[in-house]
Here is the input.
Amino acid sequence: MQDSYFRVWSIFLGLVIFIAGSMSLLGRFEPVAQLDTAGYRDFPVDRLDNALNSQRTFVYPLILKAFQWLFGSNALLPFFQYSVSALASGTFMRTLMRCGWQPGLALGATLPMMTSLMVLDYTHLVTPDLVAQSFAILAVSSWLSILHKGGGLLQWVLLGTWIFFAYQTKPAYLFLLVFVPVGGAIARWWLFAEQRDSLVLGVKLAIASFVPFLGWCTLRWVLVGHFGLVAFGGYNIVGIAGQLLQREWVDELTADVQQLAREILERREQRKDWSSKISYSTYESQYNPMVWEIAVPAASKLYGNDSRAMNFELSRFSKEVIATKPVSYLIWLALAANNAFKQCLELTILNPMVTLSMFAMLLLHSFRWQLRKSKTSATAMEDIRSDQAYQTIVWLGIGYAMCNLMLVILVETPISRYCGPAAVFISSLPVMLAVSMFRWNSSLRANQVIHD
Here is the structure.
């Protein structure tokens, strides 16, 4: 067993070093700013109330400030982001083995994390995406440890801490507040047949998840008069609601909202490139123009440059539009959910480790067919269905992705920077299958040698 542990850790560290070397040769460790980078760099740290009033959460801006203070630039930031991702993946693999997984399956579940879109395409970007995903993986590691082994005080503290850091790095990870307790209770009841304590565990997980969040929201309410993670939700959802709005709906809105609705319509109708076609591609291509070129300037004209006031009015406008014509919003949700599913599938298949595993499974299946021994595919599939490791990864992959993307599509378009992290655990399954098939073929070949 010790040899197995040494072998899987050697393979994992070898892959981490190989990817780092390859990315370094390709220039992928040189930081590249994005459109939203300035918002993180300009995060106010002079006063606490200014920081709490910011549209950005605080973790990633503080990381940028720390690099600026320690090194004078963000030149080493990609190395840090890659290292955090590797550490999170290694922690996940260690957790799986401590939960009783065979080392090979734990390795198979972990390897595609290091070859995912987020690692290969986002390591060098000055955005919080990769760091936030890493915190989420660490949170899931603590969650799995608690589900399997009950977890000591340290695991419970770590669970709350990693969840807090995840959504304080990127608010899209607020879905963990729901997934962790609800998913934990269901998994405890379904996977581990512990019906008696599943509800109690769910309550404990909810407390560990929500107490830091409610504490933060209360702090902001006391100091700046706003209860919530950040005052930014209105900016997100108006990108959808502003496209749904039709001129004939305006009179059905309340008087306070009608002025903003008319201002948005006028600015929208002035654009010759604007399309009213009902399709996901239209909503996605017009999302950012609707927010930053139409709705925000319209709100700024009416309410000044107070970001909190603008967020409140944009949010109120969006909620009224959706409440007035909920069918149009449901159509949007259906279009977005369909696109999210296809993107998750595409990004999973395009993961190099998954692609390699699928190719290897084809070869291994062909080899096993030639051996024509007693262990049939049906028997192998029965082994998979009864293996708790596979049951866990299927439940984790599907549940994590669904909760993640459900939050996203409610307020914005599910683009690849959201779908990639959502599918991070789905990509584990095909690699685990390839590992199992390799093990079965090795067993068959050994049996053939013995019989011969």
Observations:
- Residues 1-228 form one domain.
